[in-house]
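Task 17 of the worksheet. Students: predict the tertiary structure of the chain below and write it out as structure tokens. Keep your answer in the requested format; marks are given for formatting as well as content.
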Amino acid sequence: MKVTVATEEGKSSQIEVSGDTAVSTIKSLVSTELSVGPGAQVTFNGRPLADTTTLAGAGVSEQDLLLVTMGGGGAFGGVAAAAPKGPTLADVGSEPGEMLEFFKKNPQLLRQLHHVNAELAEAVETGDVGKVRTCLMMQQMNSHKAKWTRETERAALFANPDSEENQAKIQKMIDQEAIDQNYHMAMEEAPEVFARVSMLYIDTEINGVRVKAFVDSGAQSTIMSAACAEKCGLMRLVDTRFHGEARGVGTGKILGRIHMAQIKIGDHHFPCSFTILQTSDVDFLFGLDMLKRHLCVIDLKSSMLGLGSAGASVPFLSEKDLPSSARETQAEDLENKKPAAAESSGSSSSVETAPTGAGAGSAAPASSAMDTETPATASPASASATPAAATASAAGGAEEAKVTQLTAMGFSREQAEGALSSTGGDAEQAAGLLLAQMDL
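Model answer:
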């Protein structure tokens, strides 16, 4: 099989190896081309691999990516050094039991897992080893199905590479592989780029009313919503001659302008002018015009807003103190950071890989539906059946549920029944057998 070995500096090499190849051999094969020393660490989907581990034992398959880290000397060394020490998602074991124990000891990482792989996080929260195992299996199955589909499409494209249409598709495929590789490297080396970033808010007081102001140096003007102006008793000061339309990411109706009002920040009062919008997601936006007027400095290191005109500073609000609208917006932005399942190349890892296939979510409901429908559709005659017949009927329903679960994973009914027969009716072993056959 072919695997790609990449370094933190962006160098990569594709090599042909077998499943029983040890990690130490991999390092030897790429030592010259990638300048890899014997002390380098090889990781697969965020999990460090011992030198004696074989590729098959680590779950590495065709076209997978191995990352080689050089002991802190890579491109992301500065980021890693600055990050606080402690367990990360890369330390999660691949076994369901180990995974549950890990998150039990490190509950703070479960929230991060929700951002990366919400489906797996929900399974972990149940504390049910079986549900976690099923989730991992389904995600691995979807990953292999996606990989098989890509390989089939690749073979069809390279069968006629001179076609103009195929050349365009091949280029798109190469670009997508580069994007996926870049994504996985970012997940492993700089996972903080996928984390939620809190917006900058400060406490202010206008006409005795406390208002949380959104500090935005990217906004040309200081803006207040009509509702906030009404609450602060300022609507009577709106000069409607300055009405119009605000244009940015979207548009909004400008009702007018308040030319001067006092705003209290910390212990100091400042004159401030506002553009009043009819509707706004933010009550009060402290824009660049007032930031420049009062010589403000956004100090991210100290998390303070310096007020140069007053020689003072005030702290930015912590995430828990932000307005509810800001937290909801951040949650939506975070959701948008997740790649769509169809765009992902997939991975055999189920912790570090955010994308999951559609089948992972549909298998459990299919099985549940079968379990609930079986008693409901039983005929009246079955109520008087002998205990032996009732047992046989229940067993048949259970077997049908297992077949349904496997077919929901993408296999034919014949394949599902054959695998169940070979494994004595064990659905998990049957799925593993079908998965192994798919790799051959």
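Marker's comment: The chain has four domains: 1-83, 84-196+345-356, 201-317, 359-439. Residues 72-85, 341-394 have pLDDT under 50 and may be disordered.
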